[in-house]
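User: Good morning. I'm curious how aspartic acid would be positioned relative to this chain. Could you predict the structure with it bound?
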Amino acid sequence: MKKVVKFGGSSLASAEQFEKVGDIIKADPDRVYVVPSAPGKRNSKDTKVTDMLYGCYDLAENDKDFSKELAAIKARYDEIINGLGLKLSLKDEFKTIESNFKAKAGKDYAASRGEYLNGIVMANYLGYEFIDSATVVAFDKNGNFDSEKTNKLMSKKLERTPRAVIPGFFGAYPDGSIKTFSRGGSDITGSIVSRAVRADVYENWTDVSGFLIADPRIITLPEQIDTITYTELRELAYMGASVLHEDSIFPVRKEGIPINIRNTNMPEDPGTWIVESTAKKSKYTITGIAGKKDFCCVNILKDQMNSEVGFVRRVLQAFEDQNISIEHVPSGIDTMTVFVQQDEFIEKEQSVVAEIHKLAQPDLLEIESDLALIAVVGRGMKSTRGTAGRIFSALAHANVNVRMIDQGSSELNIIIGVETRDFEKAIKAIYDIFVTTQL
Ligand code: ASP
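Assistant: Good morning! Here's the predicted structure, ligand included:
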């Protein structure tokens, strides 16, 4: 068995946390490839090393003195090194970083040093080989991640390296300069390593015991999800449920490798399994509920729309021309509605309206704002009758007016549009009918 283990920033914020991580790795000889994040917050008032690096580089870029800020970053690592009793000095590394900052090596270079240095510390602590991700994670010259090139480089390198630490979050352009993924991107690195070594499991260790059925800021102590499929997770992540970087699904998906979300502070918890497909029934009809606020919709009416060839395309063309992405397009006989994100739409709304009139000549056009979308996701919905009925009667009882309903062909989710002010109330009502009343 081969396991890839990724540890998030809060799991590596101090020497004490590092020791927990060391115990986890040593407890299972299959945990052979380790992907660390940069040290995160030690308490709620603390600053993540990544943010300290961005701040420090900002000064460097503006030709200001950054020595105090850089020393504070070095102190974070020294605290860990000394706390673990390691014979390791990062003095030379910090000298290099200082001169590269002065030479304005770039924001991505700056941010990447958080995981780079943590990788060196981790490799020293575990006695594993350190591999610089710049040599095995490739981006093309436009900054797009090159998955096939990376997979070749990474698998070739790891074939010859039985145990290694590969820092998360960054790689390099073809010319060797550093490029990072978006924030939280160490999750993607863990997935890339898992694919390259065809791992049996990708363990992603964080500070929660997995995914919850609903947002704990809305539902008090929601139930946890035991098993979720990649596709269900995509739907929930798109709607804002965040534990894992949403792009980290893609590399493991190519090899069907399961991801296991685990809690460094409660290693005995089994966590959540994210799998390609499963025969396991979820405990409830639904797997999860997530949602996002701040949508607008454009309602369009045209008599005999259904018999006018190309009408929908022409309307959508108006959005495309203004470079606005479309979220949902529910339609009726002579009406269609286009849902878009409010902040993206608002500044271009009049240009879009003018364009729709020019291209499609609607009879009526109306814009509504402050809408929220809620996704009720679950592989169990396909085989259960009455799910939609239960959702809508729960919403009716809670006095929530449903503005839009959209069920995709996969029957994996139902998307419901409500007014923003009803958002929390609607999620509570749906959670109650599917979970609380079933307990
Ligand atoms: N350290 C980076 C961040 O704070 C990447 C990560 O932790 O995954 O976003």
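The chain has two domains: 3-275, 288-436. The first strand starts at residue 3 and ends at 7.
Let me know if you'd like a different ligand tried.
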